[in-house]
Design a protein that fits this description.
Radius of gyration: 20 Å
CATH class of the largest domain: Alpha Beta
Strand order of the largest sheet: 4-3-5-6
CATH architecture of the largest domain: 3-Layer(aba) Sandwich
Distance between the termini: 44 Å
Largest sheet: 4 strands, parallel
Bound molecules: 1,3-dihydroxyacetonephosphate, iron/sulfur cluster
Helix content: 40-55%
Number of domains: 3
Number of strands: 14
Number of helices: 19
Structural class: alpha/beta
Strand content: 5-15%
CATH superfamily of the largest domain: NadA-like
CATH topology of the largest domain: Rossmann fold
Amino acid sequence: MLTRFNLKPNVFVKNLCVHLGRAGRAAGALVPLPYNRFMATELPVLQASDVPPPLDPELIKELSVEIRELAAERNAIILAHNYELPEVQDVADYIGDSLGLSREAEKADAEVVEFCGVHFMAETASILSPEKRVLIPDLGAGCSLSDSITADQLREWKAKFPGAMVVMYVNTSAEVKAETDYCCTSSNAIKVVQHIWAEHGEDTEILFGPDMWLGAFVERATGLKDDPERAARFHVWDGECHVHAGIRPDDIARTRAENPEAEFLIHPECGCSTQAMEYVANGDIDPEGVHMLSTSGMIEHVRENPEGEYIVATENGMLYPMRQAVPGAKLIEANRMAYCKFMKMITLPKLRDSLRDMKFEVKVDEALAEKARLPIERMVSIG
Ligand code: 13P
Ligand code: SF4
């Protein structure tokens, strides 16, 4: 079985305008992304083998007991990202967003950190907790966004803009972080960029990556869009997460029409985030009803109004922890195909094997970790 994300190229071309990272930015122009640029990133295709078969409830119970026993034996803390399978979240000590989990790992009084998430997250935990043994149940759990920039590519980019400050999303490899001045997350990207302008001057050249949608969001939210001269010094890498890029402006239009009372909770990596900001700017949507949030930010937000109605634009695993937090809320998926196959590679049998056999270790070499820690610590000190 093959299922395609519901990408609509005609709607995409008609609706979408962003500052292009290179030529467009130099001209200070708002230019539509060419359709073939988008095609180059591949339409995400979900294979039946990407979806793990559901486990029998009795087996879930048995495995969960075994996993908790192994965790106690190993003095391990189990961390699970918000997109993980429900049964994996249920057995974890902490559930959270990418950075929050690494910080839990840092705080924990445990010898072993079992990371149920993707590889860059386990690496971040190893960078922040070099004395702990960090395990991931499946080494193949990668991330298309993190893969969209390599350290060599970043070095080449930096060579073209000597003196520029590099801001990279935490969804990057340890090697990329080691070439970075400041990390950021979806919840603090604006703050980090504003901090750089405050500390190093408003005209500081910035290389921002690897997510172009988050970059476009920062450009709009900081007013760069209306200041072509400064915008020309803010360069955005044209990477993206295939899952979030697949949540299109059309999804907003459709779910809005179907649920006129609902608020929008949008992860800034989404391909619809720029459009949502345009709707707000044009007065089509009440700004009160649109929130650009990290995954954990979404949970905090719905807790404020647990009976509310929300359209959730992110990977759909997110609906599980949200439902647990606010069972009375109406939660609507912006695109029901938003599915991260990498996150779902972490299953209970693999988690049990990982703790039992102490595999697969993710260890960032100390010299590299030292360099990669600096941009994370700078970000954390900004908040
Ligand atoms: P958060 O940091 O918001 O959890 O996002 C991580 C991620 O991988 C989004 O797809
Ligand atoms: Fe990476 Fe996207 Fe999956 Fe998040 S949802 S882990 S950014 S591929």
